[in-house]
Structures are given as C-alpha cells and as structure tokens.
Write a structure and sequence with these properties.
The chain is of the alpha/beta class. The protein has two domains: 64 residues, no CATH class; 341 residues, Purple Acid Phosphatase, chain A, domain 2 (4-Layer Sandwich), CATH 3.60.21. The chain has 13 helices and 14 strands. The strands form two sheets. Strands 1, 2, 3, 4, 11, 12, 13 and 14 form an eight-stranded mixed sheet that branches. A six-stranded mixed sheet has the order 5-6-7-8-10-9, with helices on one face. A hairpin with a 5-residue loop joins β12 and β13. It is globular. 38% of the residues are buried.
Length: 442
C-alpha cells in the first residue's frame, strides 16, 4: 500500500541534490527492482535544511553530494510488508433437516411389576422403570412406545396375565419419560372390553391431549385420521395395527374400537399416508410369541407394507427380540423392518429355558433426513439392546441399557430363580446373535 506524502516545490539547490542522489544510487551497481524500486521512488523526502552548494567551497559537488546522500539515507523509512488482508468469517453451514425417532417394545404390567410401583401411602409410581433410559428417550425428536396393556384405571381393577389392566399412573410415567406416541393396538386392547377402551381414551384426552394415541378409537371419525408428525419440513406418518384381540370380539356398537391387520384397510391407509407425509412408519403387533426369528406371515406383511409405500416397520408382540433387515417388494418398494423389539419391561411368571430371552429388548433408533432431491430417507439406524432388571420392593423393577448392565446386577436379578441360564453374558450373546452389526454401543 502506497503512503501519501506532501512535497515542497524544489529550488535550484534541491534539484542539484536530487541529481547527486540519483548518481549515488547508480554508483551502488544496481537499480532497485519491483516493490523495492517503487518504495525508493516514493519515499524519498527532501529536507528544506539541506545545505545549498557555495562558490566558496573548494569542492562544491562533493560537499553537496555528501550532504544529499546523508539526507536521503536518514530520511528514507524502512521497507515494510503490507498488512495481511482481513478475511471474512466463514459462514456457518446450513443444518440438514432431520428427525431422530426412537421406539421401545412391550410394556407388560405383570402382577409383581404392578406391585413394584405401588406406593406405601397409596397410588402408584412407575418412574423407576424408565429412569435409566429417560435421557435417551427425551433427546429423541419423536419417541414411540408399545403400550401392551390397556390403561383402564384402578376403578376397573389393576390386573396381570391373562387379562391385563394398568392404573392411570403408568400413563403418567410414560409422558414424564418423554414418549410422544403411545401405541395401543395389541392383542390385549380388549382385556377390559369396551369400558377399558373408553376409560383409556378419556384418560389420554383429558390429561395429555398432546400425546398421540394410536390403534384404539371411540369414533369412526377418529379411526379415519392419519397421525402425522412434522418437523423442519419433514412429515412422518405413523400407523398401528394388531393381528387380533385374543378372541375377544369388537364391541357391536364400536366396530372401529381397535385397528386390525386387514389387508384392504392397510393398503388404503398406506395410500392416504403417502399423500399426507414424506415418510411412512408402520407399527404392527404380529408374529409368534417367544420365537427369535420372524415367521413367514411377518415376511408376507412386511412385503405388503413395502409394496404400498411404507418406509419403516417397527414390530412388537413376540416378547423376544427378532432380526432387522431391509425388505424389497416385487414392485421395488423398500422398507427397513425391525421384526420385533421384544419386551421393554415385564416380570413373567413363566419358568424354564427361554424365560431369560424375555428380559432382553431393543430400542430402535432411526434418523430420517432429506436427500439432495428433497426425498425423506433413512440416513442412520440401529438398535440399543436393553435388559429388564427385577427385584422385589417398591421401585425394584427398572430397565438398563445392556452396556450399563453388570454381573453384580445380573446375580441379583430375580429372574434367575425362574431361568438359571440368565446372566450378563447370556444377554450379551443373545443381543449379538439376533441384532448383529445393527447394535449401537455406548
């Protein structure tokens, strides 16, 4: 950068000095080049105090030349580098729109599990069940839970297998934990018949109207609605169905009470869901209990879902975990299928080999984003294995991420009395065998 200087008008003596200074530069043997040349040319400052040549001097040229050279040398500032340019700050990248979805398996309120939530002063508190996974559930954008048993309230009698009913406090615990969508289409939905459905829906509508309750209805209009969750411009539709209701017929005046896996109905719902949303999730209650692999019937339904526009399938009901796979239909439609997430919490009365399998569940974790073409796609997925820990006493039942479970806890787990094969290593090997590379570690 060139500096701006003020120059005086030169007189005869000044001109003479200037000529001598140019001669001095030439005598040095070279001419300054490039930036050095420009600097030397522009930064010469002529002083008014420079002596003029005198006729009385014996060598006026030498005297004047010496003075001029001294003045130039003393007055030329040092050559300095130009200041570094100021760089504009790098703009922050635009966040990619995405939705992080999680879902857990069956909430089974067996009799000893209900007893673990009963407070000495009366009422229930089930917060201990969820406390070790609450943070993981809360940080999801949308969290789903399969509420296996109807929440009909203590007025209908809290009961376990085979005809379940949960107190309202279980619903309180689900909301406090951070679940946004409660799935009620299960084979136990009609365990307390029509009144159980009505009590359950009234509880949700009156206390937690913002919580989405799927799979059961108190009107035909409600059954026709498609639930859609929207965030950052991505819309996700969720559908929920069950294979049946343990032989209990739908109420004659409420044929819409429970959403059933009926082919024509499912196809019609999938078409409407695809029109309303960018991404479609189906949560079927299906399969065969206590079997660690999917059945042919599940595979048939999975292809039907994929063929008709489903993107993700999150299955429940077998009460044990089953594999995860990508399913491709004959028409090219594809869906990621979690065949069974197993139990989230239970305290079965069963004994013998295989009971230990019921204590291991999975939390599905799926991230949905927009690709370059604006289509909603799965960008990440996996499963977090969980272990249900049961001990007697208030708050004695809780669920741990498998990676937090310890040998000490496994020894104390009372399920060992019902199946002696239960251990930490047993749980680890089971999760690895069924879920394989899809497991999410800590």
């Amino acid at each position: 950068m060139r500096s701006k200087y003020s120059f005086q008008k030169p007189g005869r003596g000044v001109l003479f000095c200037l000529l001598l200074s140019l001669a001095a530069f030439t005598a040095c043997g070279r001419r300054p080049q490039g930036d050095e040349q420009r600097t030397a040319d522009s930064l010469i400052v002529l002083s008014a105090a420079t002596p003029l040549p005198s006729s009385e001097s014996e060598d006026p040229a030498a005297e004047s030349g010496t003075a001029a050279a001294a003045t130039v040398s003393s007055m030329v500032p040092p050559v300095t580098s130009p200041p570094a340019p100021t760089l504009a700050p790098t703009p922050e990248p635009t966040p990619v729109p995405e939705i992080r979805l999680v879902m857990v398996g069956d909430i089974l309120l067996h009799t000893p599990l209900a007893a673990s939530g009963k407070k000495p002063e009366g009422g229930y508190d089930f917060s201990a069940v969820f406390e070790n996974l609450k943070q993981e559930i809360e940080k999801a954008d949308v969290a789903l839970v399969n509420q296996e048993v109807i929440i009909g309230g203590a007025e209908l009698g809290v009961s376990g297998y085979p005809s379940f009913n949960a107190p309202y406090e279980l619903g309180d615990a689900l909301v406090d934990t951070g679940f946004d969508v409660v799935l009620h289409a299960t084979n136990h939905a009609l365990d307390k018949r029509k009144q159980g459905i009505l009590n359950c829906l009234s509880f949700w509508q009156e206390n937690y109207p913002d919580t989405a309750v799927l799979g059961i209805h108190d009107s035909q209009e409600s059954q026709q609605e498609i639930y859609v969750y929207e965030q950052q411009g991505i819309r996700i539709a969720v559908l929920n169905y069950t294979y049946g209701t343990n032989g209990v017929p739908l109420p004659e005046d409420m044929p819409y009470a429970v959403d059933l896996l009926e082919e024509d109905r499912v196809k019609a719902d999938l078409q409407r869901a695809g029109e309303l949303a960018d991404f479609v999730v189906v949560c079927p209650h299906w399969g065969k209990e206590y079997v660690l692999e999917q059945t042919k019937e599940q595979e048939k339904w999975a292809k039907l879902f994929a063929e008709n526009g489903a993107d993700l399938v999150l299955g429940t009901h077998p009460h044990v975990i089953e594999p995860i796979e990508q399913v491709t239909a004959d028409n090219g439609g594809q869906a990621l299928v979690y065949y069974s997430l197993g139990n989230f919490v239970n305290w079965t009365a069963g004994t013998g080999a295989g009971v230990a399998n019921r204590m291991v569940g999975g939390m599905a974790q799926v991230t949905v984003s927009l690709d370059d073409s604006g289509e909603a796609v799965i960008t990440e997925y996996g499963v977090l294995p969980v272990v249900c820990h049961v001990e007697g006493g208030f708050g004695g039942v809780t669920v741990y991420p498998l990676w937090e479970y310890t040998e000490e806890l496994a020894v104390r787990n009372e399920i060992v009395r019902q199946d002696g094969s239960f251990s930490l290593r047993y749980c680890q090997e089971l999760a690895e065998r069924v879920f394989g590379d899809d497991i999410i570690s800590e």
